[in-house]
Amino acid sequence: MILETVKSEGIAHKSYFIGSNGIAAVVDPRRDCDIYIDIAEKNNMRINYIFETHRNEDYTAGSLELREVVGADIFHGKGLDFAYGNSVVEGDKFQIGNVVLEIIETPGHTNESISLLLKDREVSEYPYMVFTGDTIFAGEVGRCDLYGNNETLKMAKAMYNSVFNKLLKLDDNVIILPAHGSGSVCGAVIREQEFTTVGYEKKTNPALKKSEKEFLEFKLHEKLYTPPYFKEMEKNNLIGPSLICKLPYLKPLGIHELKELMSKGGQVVDVRDPAAFAGGHIPNTLNIWKDGLPSYSGWFLNYEQPIIVVDENNSNIEDLKRYLIRLGYDNVYGYLSGGFPVWFKGSGDFETVHTWSVHDLLPNMGKKSLFILDVRKENDWEKERIEGSHNIYIGELKENLDKVPRNKHVAVLCDTGYKASIGTSILKMNGYKNVTNVMGSMTAWKKAGYPVVKR
Predict the structure, then answer these.
(1) Which helix (H) or strand (E) holds 409?
(2) Can you give the residue ranges of the Rhodanese domain (predicted)?
(3) pTM of this prediction?
């Protein structure tokens, strides 16, 4: 038996390739599916099965794309009326060489969520590992709020049953392979671990130490954020996205082409780091640093107008288009040829953003003209914050601009200054003149030994 984990950066997604005796299966494939084909060819295997542990919300699934190439069958839970694939139920088994995958219905995150219990019969009849989707993660369990507040209690009860009465009944040595790692929006505090086990989670996972009443209360009051792009992903993964067959060609654009697209509503995202963006950027452009693009573009970019990327030297174009395609952005169009240096060398107008160190912020703290905006998650802000700061999560800033005064100097901070740079770009795009990115933000503030307010 072989097992390979395929990670998708930014969204912290994990998919899995399982193979035995020339036959293979893929669990929760991503849309740019060439990597699974490469693994199959390298190991002389044929992909016959594709499994979806649930209808994913944070990325566009690659099941149809992979089926188009390899001709495999697609399987998912029966609790949702998918427009493609086949339904499975509790106890269904699939033979993959010497490996057997058995379906366990584990609703709670979604109604149709399933887990896949694996036995390697070449070695033993004992269960070896379980693919848990978004039900159990390392240090966390899946969110139960996706169907709205009125359904959260019902879903939390289903989650409790799936976790405590099914998955935790497995032997302690069974390896847990979830669909996400640390940083995913599908859980609040997922640990950074390659894999975990049933026994280890029993000992270390805070959610699994709770009584049923405590668990339900915990889930009912859990504060999580839901990016607007989730709705597009849910639609894509229910009816099936359009086939791309190959990664799109991004057009190299000149200055005049870029200006014309912008005049018609084109979305320009500058993927350089905060310091570079602050030093100079094209007016009315959104800044999301390269590695943050998968996590934050879904909050701000729409699926209609063309998306144009601005970078320093365009060495990251291959990664960037994969990030966007995984989120269903088929409207990704092109990039500024030659990068931002071409813009200012071509006499293009540009703007700057003020920057402060934490040492600059400290002596300005008492000024009535200063408004300190912290764009971290509310839970993080409540745990520790700078006295007098105001919290609006970065993903919700655009819809809450009425809470940010236009007649004050707005100093924006986050964990290190990267999300703050998104914030300064949003403010600048919406007419705010006096904005500053506090570089290093809370990390540097605490490193300097400056005071924080703690919950």
Answers:
(1) strand 409-413
(2) 262-352, 366-454
(3) 0.92
